[in-house]
Amino acid sequence: MSMIPLAVIMISQSTYANAFNQKPQVSTQENNAFLSTKLSQTSFTVAQASSLTGVWNCNDGGVYFIRQVGNQLWWYGQSADGGETWSNVFQGTIRGNQIIGSWADVPKGAVRGYGEMTLRISGNRIEKISGGENFGGSLWSR
Question: CA-CA 20 to 30 A from 9: which of 1, 43, 113, 126?
Answer without folding.
Answer: 1
